[in-house]
């Protein structure tokens, strides 16, 4: 019986992780189709959101839902700041795609 429980937990965990990877992939596609530039910083944004959610829920003691909402908002703000300070000035200077990709590393 413990093997069946382990198998079920492994399947559920795998589906959850697969869904997260799928969302990251969809994000890459949306950003690339909208701007024509591959944004490699997207994985860092996902990691930052996960870390903020973890810290808020374990260290601060907020509920998981509230932590996720705050993390989403804070990562969105970080993304806007990076776009305004890094990407937009390069876009205005007609930087090459290679430079834009390097800027998002």
Description:
- There is one protein chain.
- This protein has 105 residues and is mainly α.
- It has one domain.
- The protein has 4 helices and no strands.
- It has helices spanning 2-35, 42-60, 64-92, 97-103.
- The longest helix is centred in the N-terminal third of the chain and has 34 residues, at 2-35.
- The N and C termini lie far apart (47 Å).
- The mean pLDDT is 89.
Helix content: over 70%
The profile of the biggest β sheet is: none
Strand residue percentage: under 5%
Order of helices and strands: HHHH
Q: Termini, distance in Å?
A: 47 Å
The secondary-structure class comes to mainly alpha
Calculate Rg over CA atoms: 18 Å
Overall number of strands? 0
User: What low-confidence regions span 5 or more consecutive residues with pLDDT below 50?
Assistant: none
Total domains, how many? Answer: 1
Provide the residue-averaged pLDDT. 89
This entry's quaternary arrangement is: single chain
What's the gist of this structure?
This protein has 105 residues and is mainly α. It has one domain. It contains 4 helices and no strands.
């Amino acid at each position: 019986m413990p093997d069946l429980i382990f198998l079920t937990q492994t399947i559920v965990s795998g589906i959850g992780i697969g869904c997260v990877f799928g969302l990251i992939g969809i994000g890459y596609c949306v950003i690339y189709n909208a701007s024509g530039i591959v944004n490699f910083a997207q994985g860092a944004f996902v990691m930052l959101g996960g870390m903020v959610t973890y810290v808020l829920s374990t260290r601060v003691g907020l509920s998981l839902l509230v932590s996720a909402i705050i993390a989403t908002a804070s990562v969105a703000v970080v993304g806007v700041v990076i776009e305004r300070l890094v990407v937009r000035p390069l876009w205005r200077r007609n930087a090459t795609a290679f430079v834009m990709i390097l800027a998002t590393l």
